[in-house]
Specification:
- With about 70 residues, the protein is mostly helical.
- Helix content is about 60%, strand content about 10%.
């Protein structure tokens, strides 16, 4: 898939653990892991919004398109 998920990079930059982010945005660590691995087929805008608020970033910091 040409969409690359850089969530692990942003977590490292913010020195935050996946577990902490999952709790903060209200999703399970399993679902966050699926998203981080790039295996997710979709992401809700509300989830993306919550991630951006928690990590103080833009969607483009998390999602990247590579043809």
């Amino acid at each position: 898939m040409p969409i690359i998920v850089n969530l692990d990079v942003m977590l490292a930059k913010r020195k935050m653990k996946s577990k902490d982010l999952a709790e903060k945005i209200g999703i399970t660590t399993a679902n966050l892991s699926i998203l981080k691995s790039g295996k997710a087929k979709a992401i809700r805008f509300s989830t993306l919004d919550a991630i951006c608020v928690a990590l103080e970033c833009q969607p483009s910091d998390i999602l990247e398109y590579q043809p």
